[in-house]
Amino acid sequence: MTDSQKSSEAVDKLPRAKVKQHRWSFPVMWIVPVVAALLAAYLVYDQVREFGPTITIRFKDGSGLKAGRTPIQYSGVPIGEVKVVKLSDDLRDVVVEARLLRSAASIAREGSVFWIVRLGTEIQDISNLGTVITGAYIQVLPGTGEPKSDFVGMEGSQAAVEPDGLEIVLHTKRLGSLKPNSPVYYRGIEVGAVRAVQLSADATAAEIHVRIKPRYAKLVRSGSKFWNSSGADVKFGLLSGLEVNVESLKSLVGGGIVFATPDDPKSRPVRNGAVFPLYEQPAKAWLEWAPRISIPPDESSSKHGRQKKAPESPEASAQGK
Known about the structure:
The protein has eight helices and 16 strands. By secondary structure, the chain is of the alpha/beta class. The protein has helices spanning 3-13, 31-49, 131-134, 158-161, 249-254, 284-288, 299-307, 314-320; strands at residues 51-59, 71-74, 77-87, 94-101, 113-117, 137-141, 150-152, 166-172, 183-186, 189-199, 206-212, 225-228, 233-237, 241-245, 257-260, 274-279. Helix content is 20%, strand content 31%. The strands form three sheets. A seven-stranded mixed beta sheet has the order 5-6-2-3-4-1-7. The protein folds into two domains: 48-155, no CATH class; 160-296, no CATH class.
């Protein structure tokens, strides 16, 4: 037997290794962390997908605004959130950086007006009592211009900041409780607001700058009469008893203005800057004035009406058959 044969026999006698094929298995302990990571990734993606443009708004007073908590609203619906609140480089303004939702990206346009709704420190802010719970928020009135990212916020209510309104000036010897944002009423409907109050140039009277909403601008004519409705009108008679007349709770605690317009063809519409006297009490004849003045329809009402199909008349139904 040769050496090669001996070596081959020795190799055959050696034990052979058994190779087993194992399938890859995923440890059960990793299932929960992986599912949690996938869910977190989806939530982040969903959040980022909702992000719209970032805008900057400058205010003179930023009290009540909080980063990550103060919403931006339009018609009562949140459309964005304040991300950063800081002072400007010259320390004169409060700079607010906010992120809009993608669905509200069209708000970032020329002509959009932003203002802060807060309870404030005066009792006249009774209409904003909801901010006691929710805190201050930023309200917006959309514009229709070119896309824009930098805005200057306004101070005041929607009626006071609404663009394209009628600007008039009222003169009075005594201001009383009237303040910026005090309402202006026509036949019990709030149609405007006081924008600012100041002394006249010769300091002999108080000037009240009023802005009337565009829809109601035609109601103000050259013969219109304005009077102060602050407080309550209390009358007592032996037969009639106690009579208390209040224009509204808001005007009772924060002041208000009422005006009436005569049914006179000579009384023409006025332009911006028209000046009227403000009376303490109305004359009885003014309360009887009820001229027919056409005003544009409310946009929200007209849109709602167009969504509803008008019912078909019986005659039209019969012709169709």
